[in-house]
Amino acid sequence: IGTELTTEFRSRYGSDNVYCTDIRDDVSSQLKEEGNYDILNVLNYDELSNFIKSRNIDAIVHLAAILSGRGENNPFNCWEVNTVSAMNVFKIGVEQSIKRIFIPSSMAAWGLGIEPDNVSQASILRPTSIYGVTKVAIERLAEYFFLKYGLDTRGVRFPGIISSEALPGGGTTDYAVEIFYDAIRTKHYKSFINQGTLLPMMYMPDAIKSVIMLMEADISKLRYHGDYNIAAFSFAPEDLADEIKQFIPDFTIEYEPDFRQKIAESWPRTIDDS
Ligand code: AKB
User: What is the pLDDT of residues 9-67, one digit of tens each?
Assistant: First the structure.
């Protein structure tokens, strides 16, 4: 998300007014060359705080996180990376009177006890992945800091996001991006998500638009803080394979579900974002 959001922010607000950071240096050369780009560890409170203060930053979009698939390899590390970094952002938000913060939540916030179709804003949040647990914690912290200090944090519960610009990064919905690369490279895809597993998805430009619309909205219009339901469309792996076959007729798909299948099955099939 950060890759494409940075490009959009630079064109809307001017490159000099946008600071893009990552812990890694292996991002696209476009990101590095077309504006500010710095290496930063969001778990290091002092480093983050000084960075924000020295540049007079007044709004933060915090996207660093370990996603649902990778999170299961080391739940303790996932908790640390996702929640400690968010807590650093909340603390700096309060201390430096940051005007607005965006931290995305995810459909991973749902799990046990939901109606899988048209899951509502108020549905119970009992995630089964550690990533989902961190997202629920961050949603609730966003609300808490708003009530306590008036800190303006906003967020949406993103479905799987499909980008043509950046590779997926350790999520359960990664299959829906990987499939295109394998279709072009080998005309075959081995899906770790099973046939018939319907999941909510969204095209990246729509996700970017949602962040901008929410960030620019007047606070008086907001009823929620870090946890707006948002939806686009839902499909299963075979639906995507059928579409790809229209362009690559000899494309084939096989199914070899792994541990991510269980995570996918705990998520809603469709989301009510009314
Ligand atoms: C993941 O699969 O972990 C993410 C998400 C739904 O938040 N794409």
Answer: 999 999 999 999 999 888 888 889 999 999 999 999 999 999 999 999 999 999 999 99
Is the pLDDT score of 4 beyond 90?
yes
CA–CA dist 37, 14 (Å, integer): 14
Is residue 171 within 6 Å of ligand 1 at its C-beta?
yes
pLDDT tens for 132-177 read 999 999 999 999 999 999 999 999 999 999 999 888 889 999 999 9
Amino acid at 35: G
Q: How far apart are alpha carbons 102 and 214 in whole angstroms? A: 9
Q: How far is the CA of 172 from the centre of ligand 1 (A)?
A: 6
Q: Is 175 in the pocket of ligand 1 (CB under 6 A)?
A: no
Closest CA to 61 of 156, 161, 200, 159: 156
Q: Which residue has the tokens 């967020």?
A: 155
C-beta of 204 in contact with ligand 1 (< 6 A): no
Q: Does the annotation count 203 as an active-site position?
A: no
| 110 close to ligand 1 (CB < 6 Angstrom) | no
The set of residues, in sequence order, having a beta carbon less than 8 Å from that of 40 and lying 6+ positions away, is: 21, 22, 23, 47, 48, 51
pLDDT band at 266 (very low <50, low <70, confident <90, very high): very high
- Tell me the CA distances in angstroms from 206 to 92, 119, 148, 231, one per residue in order: 29, 20, 32, 10
Q: Measure the CA–CA gap between 16 and 140, rounded to whole angstroms.
A: 33
Q: Are the C-beta atoms of residues 211 and 5 closer than 8 Å to each other? A: yes
In angstroms, the Cα distances linking 274 to 62, 64, 120, 231 are: 25, 28, 9, 9
Dist. CA 38–CA 61, nearest whole Å: 15
Residue nearest to atom 1 of ligand 1 (CA): 171
Q: Which of 13, 19, 45, 131 is catalytic?
A: 131
